[in-house]
Design goal:
Layout (H helix, E strand, L loop, with lengths): L1 H17 L2 E2 L3 E6 L25 E6 L2 E2 L8 H5 L1
Length: 80
């Protein structure tokens, strides 16, 4: 576990040093999958209570990372 944490820190540091542009995180709404409630839902005897209402969307935190272009630059880019 400690080696995985160290690896993540090294990768993050390398990306920052290489000049990647990280935008601010934002919240994105996505659809929930497999929301059909059926069967006894874990009850051995009797009838289960009615299913609770919930939204069909869930919030996710997204972060976009822009990597710099690697390779020779075009002549047009230098003049801009």
């Amino acid at each position: 576990m400690r080696s995985a944490y160290l690896l993540l820190v090294i990768i993050f540091s390398a990306l920052c040093i290489l000049g990647c542009k990280v935008s601010k995180p934002y919240i994105m709404e996505t659809d929930r999958a497999d929301q059909g409630v059926s069967g006894n839902r874990g009850y051995i005897k009797g009838n289960p209570p009615p299913a609770e209402a919930h939204s069909d969307k869930r919030p996710l935190i997204a972060v976009d990372i822009d990597f710099p272009k690697i390779g020779p630059k075009d002549k047009d880019e230098e003049t801009k």
